[in-house]
Records
---
Amino acid sequence: MVDMADPRTRPAPVTASGAVLTARGEGLSGCRTCGRVSPAAEHVCPRCGSELHQRIPFSLQRVLALWIMGFACYLPANILPMLLTRTLGHAEGNTIVGGVIELAGHGAWDVAIIVFLASVVIPVTKFVVILYLVYSIRYGVQLSIHNRIHLYEAVEFIGRWSMIDVFVVAILTALVQLGFIVSINPGPAAIFFAVSVAFTMLSAQALDPRLIWDSVEQESTPHG
Amino acid sequence: MAEAEPPAPRLEAPKEETSRISLVWLVPLLALLLALGVAWRSYHDRGPLIEIVFRSAAGVEAGQTSVRFRDVTVGTVEKVTLSSDLSEVVVTARIDKSLARFLGADAKFWVVRPSVTAQGVTGIETVISGVYIEAYWDNTIGERVERFQGLDRAPLTPADQPGLRVRLRAPDGGSMTIGAPVLFKRIQVGKVEDIQLTPAGDVMIDLFIGAPNDVRLTEGTRFWNASGFSIQVGGGGASLNVDSLISLLQGGISFDTVGSNTAAVEDGHTFELYPSETAARQNLFEDAPGERLLLDVDFDGSVRGLEPGAPVEYNGIRVGEVSQLRAAIVEEDGRPPHVTLRTTLAIVPQRFGLGGTETETPETEALDFLASQVENGLRAQLASSGILTQTLYVNLAKVPDAPEAELDRKAEPNPRMPSAPSDVTGVAAATENVLQRVAKLPLEDVVDGAVTLLANINNLVTSDGVKAAPENLGLLLADARKLVGQPAIQDAPAQLAGILASARALVDDATQKQLVTNLDGVLATARTSLASIGNAAEGVPALLRQVEALSAKVNALPFDQLVASAKGVLDGVDAVVQSDDVKALPASVTASLSDLRGVIGDLRSGGAIDNVNASLVSLRQISDELAAARLADSIQAVVADAKTAVASVDSATAGLPALVDNLNAISNQVKSLPLEDLVKTGTNVLGTADALLASEGVHDLPANLNASLAELRTILADLNEGGAATNVNNTLASTARAADAVTVAAEDLPALVARFSAVADAADAALASVGPDSRISRETLLLLQEVRSTARSVNALVSALERHPNSVIFGR
């Protein structure tokens, strides 16, 4: 499974016995915060004071629990109205998808696409990716560990941009308060959406990427 | 790193991970519990659904329209559907649980919409925010009701606002509208809340008078319609009266306390609505509804001009009114059945000052009072309220010499009061007579005579003789001047004195002469009379013969008795005369006379004569003026009449011989009379007279006379002392002044007439100015037209706003 020609997928350094050299293999544990490697007996990083684990305990359970919370919040976030617009006393609620359709209907395709990406595509992709990673760690898949690491990094990076919709709501609420004529208030979906994004980010954070390697080690150990 | 350290001491860790369950699962578990809790709580806390039925639900939207209580949102409309028969709209709303328990059958719901009325704009906020449903219910926990009938319009006043709700009964709506103001001293204190037609055809108007002004309402309060305006043209000119501009547009009601009953009224009290303030103030019956005494009166003759509602007055005070007029057939003893006009009077006992006692009601008390008055002559009488108008009223007045009658308490259906003939027709007839006599006056002849007189005077003045008069006068004056210049004239005063002396002597002489002349006249008359008698004497022998025969007959009469009786009478008279009292009579008379003289003397000394003189002078002035008014002609006529009378006397004297003849005949007849009987009767008479004189009363007569004279003397003395003379004096002086005043007044008369004329002209001009083409009516018309066009504009604005409420914001 190891592509030796690609320097990025080149196998990690190996021990004298030929096995892949890992911190755990050497009785060490690396700090996830500052990167310093300490003896496995240490529970607190001597440099930065973070907690030290060779592997995050109950990582997959945490990921799943938080993922479920995030997903549970994502459903009302799409069903309930995101924005409450009162125009001349006439109240109107817009869900996320409804807002996108309305924007598209007004011809603002670019804005519609941005909102659609940030509010629908990215969160859904995140849910799928996290679920896929958990599944791959638990049961093993064919995708290379490098691709899986890239997926994980992408999820971690892009996750914060999901909040763009919440930011839009916050800005609109702050700006458009013209009393009777028009006023915009956050709908209940805004809270759910924000909570959902927060839980998915926590979920992604709870995933210990070293577990991806562990599966490779376990695969390679019988070979090596 | 230490590579010698023992390898992989934690390799078993992943196995622990899979076999154990992380605490992190508590997070979704808690979230789930929280969600369930919130769901259960919101389900448990949500209020009940109620249904409100509206005739129209314009603007009500499911999920949007709120239900508000005192402008606080207490619920939301969840569903708007139609009723099963499609005639109404059923609005389903969810009400807050905390308030829903107060929902009872008294709850009221209405849709708040923008409305523009003459009194202002309400619900303008709903133009922008959309309509909402306003609700009101009280704070008592009542039985749960789930279906309510919504009101078509907002109640004008909140149900809990302190105040009074009263009802007015009116014959017609009188341009009243809902929301019209209720005014007290032209200040709005309430509103018209509802106007309805009753099955009986009256109009019932519901009013609300807010606190604290509701205490102004008493049993004596009267309401009247203050809609529109009134124009009054009277002695003070024309006046235009408008209560308020709002009431001009949408009607209005004023009230004031007129009656004396100040008992407070309760909610729901019903008053009458009068068409005008005057009508409200004149009507009496609001004071004591139901406490009227009904009396029937039968009037003979026409009651034309008497109408139901005409006043009934007692000594000029209005005590009631005529409530009914009808004809009734009356059967009386000894008379054929005839038709009379039966009038029913409604009397208010309180107007007599009768308030009822513990034992009696005011009605019976008033009936007792009237019954006693009827015994003293109180009768119902028709009276005219003016000489020229035909309007009649019933007057309860004491009629002197009224035939006896009494109040028939047992009469059906009402006690019956006796009536007296009215003097209405008499007044009318007298007025007609006067007018006829005025019409008959020979005014044309007088004018003709005046014209002729003026023509004659004209002729006289233009005659040559008169034209020559000035010239002659000039000559005469020249002669006179010459004459005056003569020395003989200088001596004239002395001569004049002499002449006067002579004149006096002459007058003295004339006085005597006049006497002689009168004597002469008398003698002449006597002579004539004697001559007449002489003529008459020719018949005397016959007369004497007759007398002789009579004497013979008389001779035969039993005169002795007669004489004896006469003697008795004379004796009695003598006795009376000789009594001391009679003797005292002259003294009293003398004393009285002296007192009288004293009075007269006082009068004289008090200047009465002067005053009389002054009066006479004044009188002479008056009489001069009167004389100028052709008195002389009248006097002449009188003299002529006198002459005629004298002539009559003359002719009467000529009839003397005939008289003697008649006497003769009478004597003959006397002779044949049964004189015996006469003498006998005379004797009897004398005897009776004797007895009369002998009676004690006659003896007392002189004493009484004496006493009377004494009293007269006392009175005269009192008069003397009391300054009667002075008073008479003053009176005469006043008379003189009065006469002077009359003279002065007579001079002022033309000026007075001129003023009257000026007043009439002014009145004419005033009346002309209120004529159809006058300025005031033109201006009133213009005012009305402007008011009308204003009303039309307001109307257009209102309908425009009703169609497009948004136009307030967006323009057209």
---
Amino acid sequence: MPNPPAPSAQSSVVDDNLLASVLHDLRTPLAAMLMWQQAVRQQAGDADLQGRAIDAMCGAACETVRLLDDLRDFTLLRRGRFELHMAPLELERELAAVVAQVAVQVQKKSLTITANHGPDLGAAIGDGPLIRRALTLALDTAIQSSPPASVIQIEAKRLAHTIDIRISYRGRLGAAIAEPRRADDDRGRVPYRGLATALIRAIMESHAGNFRVSEDHPGSATTLGLSFAIAPAPAVAALPNEP
Amino acid sequence: MLVDDHALFREGLRAVLAPSPHIEVVAEASTAREMMDMIPGVSFELAILDVILPDASGSALTRELGRRIPDCNVLALSMVDSPFTVAELLRAGAAGFALKSQPTAEIIEAIKAVARRQKYLAPRLPQHEIEALVRSDITGPIGRLSPREREVFDLLIRGWNNDRVATALSIATRTAETHRQNIMAKLHVHSAVELIRLAAQHGLLREGHA
């Protein structure tokens, strides 16, 4: 077998993929804003349309801000410069809060979310807002990729040293985005929702855990697996601030 | 039929198309599967597809649509302007490719042209380069691979093992192994060395590859 490439080359590929993914993610709400501003110009006298356009453009602007926040936090986490605020988390309550947060999207697609966890799920130490964000991003990914009227299953388990949360849904994470510059160029091949999945992974790794995606039935069913340490080592909990 | 995973964009496009007397949006879908599920119950002459969907690429959906509704015209509407992507869509059977950043008047023109079974390419796109890409079979034997297999292939020719491929693509190691076996069978190679040799023969190895 040939030797694997140098770490710098691998890192460059990851960065290229992430960049392409971020570009795609940012273009999406901007395209909506452009479309709505054209609708307003085209139908200047339509007050109802103007109201809807303002709402839509606000929504797209908020989405852009959120993506920029995600990008900033991903970068800080990956460089070990995100200041974590570790505190005890009641996991059952955290899960319920995340499910409540996506209730509107769930209702729009007529989805059903079932959450199962043992009676001993208990508490863990973690950065609450960050853990909630990872769970929300994962659940949001499942919602977007699920067909209407299907079921999303959340299973949470307390293992010896980790909390293991699995989100399973019908559907796949997404075909790679084919945006190569040449036929032999793989730099632009981006996983769907690449920034979201990269951020989830970075958050889990900052809590001495990991994030895995598995295709249970390739092309038709996917499980997002998030795990994090019940009590991360102090070195993880107290990352140095930026000099 | 509008197929785009971004609801705000779909609503905006619908608002822009509403005053056009000859255009009626009869259905919307946010995923390829949603569109396929709707097909038996809705009749439409033209599909406007985003190139990037949660569950399929635009080219895969275009091919599937061509099989299910051969008479349906497809207009790809995207922010992506890579000539290779455009060529991929056209090879898959799309009649036109418009950009989301185009003025609405041009998008409406694109819709009308494709509905008349004419070809349409956004003026900003490099027409000659795209036509050359559509005509040529630049991918050679690699063209037999599915998009996912092509991704796995790109990593295997770097000398990566199944575990690393699985991690990079966020798939199970077992799935990566299945892709590896399928790739080798399709390309009639029996080892990683032969795979890399084949990639080299077709100029697919770049700096940083094994």
